[in-house]
Each structure stands twice: as structure tokens, then as C-alpha cells.
Amino acid sequence: MKKKSIAIFAAALAVGLLILWLLQMLLMPKYMTDVREGALIAEYYEEAGNHDVVFIGDCEVYENFSPITLWEEYGITSYIRGSAQQLIWQSYYLMEETFQYETPEVMVFNVLSMKYDTPKSTGSSSQREAYNRMTLDGMRWSGSKVHSILDSMTQEEKEKEGMWLYLFPLLRYHDRWSELTAEDFQYWLKKDTVSHNGYLMQVGVKPVEAEHMERPLVDYEFAANCYEYLDRMVELCQKHGTQLVLIKAPSLSPVWWDQWDEQMAAYAEEHDLLYINFLDYQEEIGIDWNTDTYDTGLHLNVYGAEKLSSYFGKILVEECGIADCRSDPELSNIWAEKVAAYDAQKEELEAACAAAE
Amino acid sequence: MQFTSLSFALFAAVLLVVYYLVPGTWQWPLLLIASYLFYFTAGKEYLFFILFTTVTTYAAGYLMDRRLKQRDEYLAAHKTELSREEKKEYKAKIKSANRVWMAVCLVLNFAILAVCKACLIDPFRTAAQEGTISFLTLGLPLGISFYMFQSMGYVVDVYRETAKAERNPLKLALFVSFFPQLIQGPISKFNQLAPTLYAPHKYDGKQVSFGLQRMLWGYFKKIVVADRIAVAIGTLKGEEYTGAAFLVLTVFYAIQIYGDFTGGIDVTIGLAEALGVRLTENFIRPYFSKNIAEYWRRWHISLGVWMKDYIFYPISVSEPMRKLSKAARKKSPNFGKRLPVYVASVATWLVTGIWHGFSPNFAVWGLLNCFVIVVSEELAPLYEKFHNRFHLKEKKWYGAFEMLRMFMLMNLIRACDLFPNVGDYFRRLGSLLTTFNFHILWDGTLMNVGLSGVDYAIIFGGVIIWFAVSLLQEKAPIRERLWQKPVLVRYCLIFALLLIVLLMGSYGIGYDASNFIYNQF
After folding, report:
1. Which chain A residues are closer than 8 Å to B504 by Cβ?
2. In the β-sheet with A78-82, what is the strand arrangement from edge to edge?
């Protein structure tokens, strides 16, 4: 009788946990049709492996660089570990985690996040929490994820024992039941891939209409904790024999002040790093702000991203010594599929765009 | 660590497992460690206060007990030598000496309580904020009103010899700090709590299951309903909400405080039950009461009992009161006879009010309760005549009417809690007679007080479930009835309740965490 009771209890517990897990999967945001950048971080694990180059950073990497172009033109295999409003400590822990899966020859870090020294500096608490979720929910559990969560939590998350909410996302998204859409059911247990090796394609065109102006700052000095994480990135890459390249993507907004550029250039020189501010090479790259941006210069569209990638690929080959892998038949087959998927989506989005016009 | 936090759930789960793994004699020391760990995480800066109360309570109990033992030994040794009067005189002498210890302990502790409560109001709050009076503290030490009343009750009981003093200081420390009841009661009597608190307990699946079910039910009341409606109460307190809106506020507040306080007590009693410790019930479906006096016998019972035993009774039978009553009887026999009851009632309700908060609105709240109860009692013979004349007591609808009347009346009195400025409260109360705006019930005003349609649906559904469960509970204990059901039905019902709490609870990001209302007392 006792054994029977224990067996019934165990079975009920198993069924209960399964139901809770299914509910959690249902209630978590899917990021498939809206806010697709939320799905990027989780997509990496399917592709983790031998990449020559891994990009780390915010929207200025996942919307401005096309790994497909790098492959097609230079035979460089690459992946972008980007997420919206990615803070520098999140970048560091993503980099640390990436080294658990692979050791690329070059690690590229976009330095815009040097300007954000605290979670709250990137917007309201609810905005920040939403960005945190997009970066952190997709990560697999590891020490890197735990540290990234601890360093990223907003004040409200800390007060509400946020770590539990990351451990059991059902507790975070428990009230989404009243907002569920068809998308939630469609992608309940299986999601589509939204990116091309971390690149989120945009084909729209919205030209720059006026110069992006921002109020000058009182203090241009980057915060000590940002430098601390940058130092840790340098050490991490040195430890793994990977070359760290610092870049500033050619986005016109937020403004990248000269004083910031000087600090980064000095840091790169001091640490013997390659630092490229692509804003200085817009002409060489061939960016046309009338056709190559989908949001008035904040980010590049696919045409701009392809130009930028083409330009950067040359640097990677010439200055970083990345070899052409196109002669590898296995890689060629894999990338041929990726190129086909890329071209198909580009065509599809262009058709949709044309129809909308 | 709040009762509604996940840390608390984990803390309780780990404790339960360890509790039933260790030998029975280690269980109460484990509870003591857990209690202090809980208190430490909840507010380490206030440890001094609970330690002070524990030490002074133990010392007073020990010293009184030692004297009582000496007295018993002396009387036993001189049984034949002493006359009856001499024995009586000796006993009185010992009692008088013990009274000093009791008084010292009560004065010291209540002085601390008064200072702590005073720090919440100006000018003391300002002084505490500015640090101009060094010993003033900001914020009320967690659970101080509860553990202090419980401890002082113990001291009085030892003095009265209705409880035996606890000789083990650690056991007494556990009585004072037992964490499930530490922050919002119930206020237990030593004689009732001690037998199960210190006794070893073997694992009893049914008992643990019952305890956890009750905790879950408490979380349902608190997180799903009370915390959800809280936002509307904050809005409806605004000065533009008068007349019918004030009436809505009183009903919403009745729902919130019921869910909040009885929910918290369900968690408390449920956890204690799972640990094998029996706590006194604090509520018996109070909204089914037919008058205010009955309501107070069914709401926050342990506080009512405490007030009756340690305030009302001592005042009403005290020597000065007897003299006053005697003098009054000469002029009006009936009034003179009842005078001690009136005076003791006023004092008791005043203290009850002040216990809730050191501000005028709570004093007024206490006096309003007192006024309604005393008037009701005075008019009781008239009511009875009226009831008998129309045979109303036999009619079910009249019983329902009485409950509704009590509910509305109590709501109006209780709303005084919400307005620290008594003038504001009476203005709102007066607006019921001057502002006829019942259209706000259907013109969409109530959709702009912070609650959505989904919120209203959840609150309404929750209240219906409370009501149905209370009705069932009137007939027989609901958990016993559930226990008789097939195991699959039982598991499904419990799991359904768990899902409701998880999915419809007001917790997490985007919700204002509401601490239990009674934590602040």
C-alpha cells in the first residue's frame, strides 16, 4: 500500500512537472515574428563549432555584418553573438562562454557598449529587463550565464530575487497567458531560425534625412568597470591565443564622440590590439546613406551590411591572416546551404518590401 | 525573506526535509536555529530587540518561578506551624514581590514597543531620520507587536500561575521567535503552544500534506486576490473618490485585508502544521458574523483573547473599578453595575487601536468599534423584542441580511485604517450622504483605478471560491473531505490550485510586491 502510494505520488509529480515545463515553454516569448533579435542568442548552440571569426556585441554587429558575405567573398567562417543593447559585461560572459564551445582565430568586439557603465544607464528598468531577457534567456546554463545574470539584473530584479525568475522563467512570464497569440502556439516546442549565423537581415530602405545630433557630454571618460571588462576580454583572448579586434560599426546614432574614439585608439595601442572605427572609412566602404540603411542611419540594411562585410573581410585576411576555407568540401557544402537560405530570404523580403510599397 | 518569496519556499522546504530526518529531540533546537536564521535574513539590524524581549521575559519568568518554588517549599515545610491567615499573608507577600518583576518586565518591553511605534510618526520619525535622538530607530522591528504581546502574556501567566515558567532559556527563545508566527501571529499562549512546539514529531504524511495544502490556500488568497486588488485601493484613496466610490473602496479593502491577513495566517498555521506544531486558529469565517461583537470573536481571535485576558479583565475587576462601580451604583444601580464594563471596553479598544498603529486614526477606529459594540449590547433587549415580535430569527433571509449589515458596517469602520488623517476619513464617510454617484459602478470609472477586465475577473472568481470554500467549511473540515476523495481527484484539485497561484498570482517583475499588511504592526 505504501509502495503504491509512493508510486502514485511519483507519477503525479512527474506529470505535474511536465505540465509546468510545457506551460513554461508556451508562456515564454518566442521572438519569431516580432522583436526577432530576442531569438539570436539561443541560435548559436546549433552552430557552435569551428568559426574563424566570432563577433560579439549589440545591434551594431548583428545588423551590420553579414557572415554570408564573408564566406562568399573570402571563405571566412564566422558567427555573430549579438543581442539588443548588449552590455559590456554580457559581452564578456558571452565571449567566455563561446570559448567553451570553440576557439576562433579572431574575436571581434564592437565597443559601443563602453558607454554604458550600469544596467540603468541603458533605459528604464522595464526596458533594461526586457533587453536582459533577450540576452540572458537564450544562453545555456553555465557559470558564465550565472555571472552575467548577477551583473546584469536591474534593481527591481534584484529586489524580486531575479535569479529565481531566470532559473524558472515560468515565474517571470506567468501572466502572459492573457496575451498569448497564435505565434506562441505555433512555436511552442520548436522554433525557426531567424538569423544567418547571427545576422538579422533587414532589406528596407529609410535614408538619412538629417544629421544625428546629440547633446555634448560633461564627462567623456569611459567608466572604470567598462575598462575592467575590456581588460578581462583581452586576458581571455590572450589565454586562448585568439586575436581580439576592437571595432566601432559605422552607425550614425548613437553618436560616437571623438573623445571616445581617442580613448579606444589609445587603449588598443597600449594593448597592441587592432582597433577600427568604421565611421572613418565610410567612403572606402562605399556606404550610401540613401540606400544602405533601413532606419535613417542607426543600422545598415543588408546592402550596407554586405558592403561593410566585404571591406572588413579584406582586413581580416590581410591583417589577421585568416585563411580561405572554400576549398574544404565539407564546409563548402554546409555554407552552400546557408547561402541558399540567405538568398532565398533576401528575395522573399525584397518581394514583400516591394509589395508593401 | 518574505513569506511570499521563493527563498522562503525553499527555506521552508529544506527545513521540512531536515526536520523529519533529524532525531525528534533535535527538532526544537533546529526550529530555534531556523527561526533566528529567518529573523536574521529578514532584518538583522533588529535582532537586538527580539533578544532583549527574550532575555527579559526569561529573567522575569525565572525569578518569579524561583520565588514561587521557595514559597511552596516554605509552605510545605511549615504546613502545620502557620495559621491560615499567616499562609495567606505570606502568599500575598510573594505575589507582591513577583508583581515587581512582572511590572519591570512589562514596562521595559512596552516602553520599547512604544518608542518603536512612535518612530513611525512625527516628530519622532523626523528625529530618527535626522539622528537627533540616537536610540530612535527607523522602521518597526519585524513582528515586534506579535512576539512582544506573546511574551508579555507569558510573563503575566507565570505571575498568575496559570503557566509554568520555562526553565530552559533556549526553549523560551523558541517560544518568542518561532518563525512561522513571528511576523503576524497568531499570538499564542505558552500553555497552548509549548506541548507541540517542544515535542518530537514523527513524519505524518497526512499532516504534512494538510499543512502544505493550507499554505497553498493562503498563497491563493494573498497573491492571487489580495495583492491584485491592492493597486485599486491605492487609487481609490484619492480625494476625488467620494460617495459610491468610497463604498467601493471599503468593499475592496474588505477583500484585500481578508485575503492578506487570513492568507498569511493560513501560510503560518499550515507551515506549523506541516512541522507538527499546533497553532491556535485566528479566524473562523468572520464575514459570516451577524454583528460586530461576533465578528471580533471570529476575526484576529488571538489578539481579542489577549486583550480580554490581559486588559479587559484586569481593568474590570480591579480595585479602583470596584470602588467606582460601588459609588456609581448609589446613584444609578444599573449604570453602576455596567460601568466597569464600559471603562474596560473603552480602554481595551483604545489599546487595540494603538496596537495597530500609533496614530489618531487607529485610536478612532478602536473607539468606533467600541461604540458600536457597547450600543449594540445596550440595545440588545430591544432587538430581541423586535425579533421575537416578527419571528425574524427563524427566517433565513434575515440571517443573510444581518451578515450583510455587519459586513457593510464593519467595512465603514475599517476604512478608518486607510486614512491617517481622521478628518479625511469622516469627510469620505459624510460623502455617502451628500454625493449620489452610483453611476460610477457602470460608467467605466472602475476600469480606471488600476484594474483591467482580467483583474476583475480573477478577483471576482477568487472571491466566489473563498465564499464557496467557507460555506463548505461551515459544514465539515474541507481538507478532511478532500482526503476522502480518490487520490487522482485530490491531486488534480491541488495541482489546479497550484496552477492558479502560479499563473494568476500578482508577483514578479511589473508587480508591486505587497508585504503582508499585518507585518507592519
Report:
1. 175
2. A78-82, A53-57, A106-110, A243-248, A274-277
**Minimum-distance CB partner of A172 among B487, B504, B509:** B509
Tell whether B285 is covered by a domain: no
Q: Is B507 on the interface with A (CB under 8 A)?
A: yes
HSE (CB half, 13 Å, CA atoms) of B307?
22
Beta bridge partners of A277: A248
CA proximity to A36, closest of A179, A193, A143: A193
In a mutational test of the A interface, the residue from B509, B512, B515 whose CB has the highest number of chain A CBs within 10 Å is B509
User: In this predicted model, what pLDDT tens digit does every residue of A336-357 receive, in sequence order?
Assistant: 999 999 999 999 999 998 888 7
Q: Residue A219: which pLDDT band, with cuts at 50, 70 and 90?
A: confident
Domain boundaries, chain A: 2-356
The span from the CA of A152 to the CA of A131, in Å, is: 10
| Domain spanning A2-356, CATH architecture | 3-Layer(aba) Sandwich (3.40)
Q: What's the complex ipTM?
A: 0.82
Query: Residue B503 and residue A16: Cβ atoms within 8 Å?
Result: no
Residue B332 phi, psi (nearest 5): -145, 100
Contact A13/B at CB under 8 A: no
Span A237-265, pLDDT tens digits: 999 999 999 999 998 888 899 999 999 99
If asked whether residues B187 and B159 sit together in one domain, one would say yes
Q: Which residues of A touch B509 (CB under 8 A)?
A: 126, 129, 156-157, 160, 162, 165, 172
List CB contacts (< 8 A) between A172 and chain B: 508-509
